[in-house]
Amino acid sequence: MNNKNEVNEAPGLSAPITGKKIFFVRHGKTEWNNQFRYQGVTDIPLCEEGREQARRTGLRFAKAKIEAIISSPLSRAYETAEKIACHHAGINVEKLDLLEEVNFGEWEGLTVNEIKNRFGEELFYKWRRNQLHVDAPGGEKMERLYARSSKVAKMLLARPEDNIVVVGHGAMLRALFLPMLELPRSNIFWKTRIDNCSISAFSVEAGNRYILSYLNDTLHLRDCGGEIISMPII
């Protein structure tokens, strides 16, 4: 029996993860995260807690063989990416506009209660039930979001590096994971947890297919003393 063929036919079941790996990191916390305000493309910097989260995330990747680090151009993501890059000599963070967070238009800077009071509960819950088909007023069209997510998925697949870190945003990453897994547009925003400075990983296996290895790993953010640097990535 050909073990290699079996791995190709049933990737990810029990075979070791080999080949190309892409790690996705959501940026560290900001004051608006703590206040539960929609940030979108508003360029809010990391707060002190977020900087500590980013530092810990950098330590988590310190012993990994990282070949490229790609970030949203927004400062909260870029600063998080820099904390990872500082452990990898010769690697500069690449900014990619396609990774920018979803533009929430007139909702940016508002809390959920403020959105409901100003725009009505009906619109908010309609959007929450089906975010990839309903737009925030004045915000990014969901058709555009899905299209740019698909571009990022294809671009990452074509990159020559075997170990890539991508630093982005909660809503954008949730949208990006759909085309990566060849899933149709669907409302997974409130069914997928992606915490600040969490790590999610995909491998690229037989047939150039993405396989989700794990989602929302936050072990490095816990009170674990000096053990972060020895934690495995995959």
Automatic annotation (TrEMBL):
Superkingdom to which the source organism belongs: Bacteria
Provenance organism: Cloacibacillus evryensis
One GO MF term: phosphatase activity
Any single Pfam family the record assigns to this protein: His_Phos_1
The protein, known as: Histidine phosphatase family protein
Residues that bind substrate: R26, H27, G28, K29, T30, E31, W32, N33, R76, R128, R129
Active site: H27, E101
Alphabetized InterPro entries for the sequence: His_Pase_superF_clade-1, His_PPase_superfam, PGM_Phosphatase
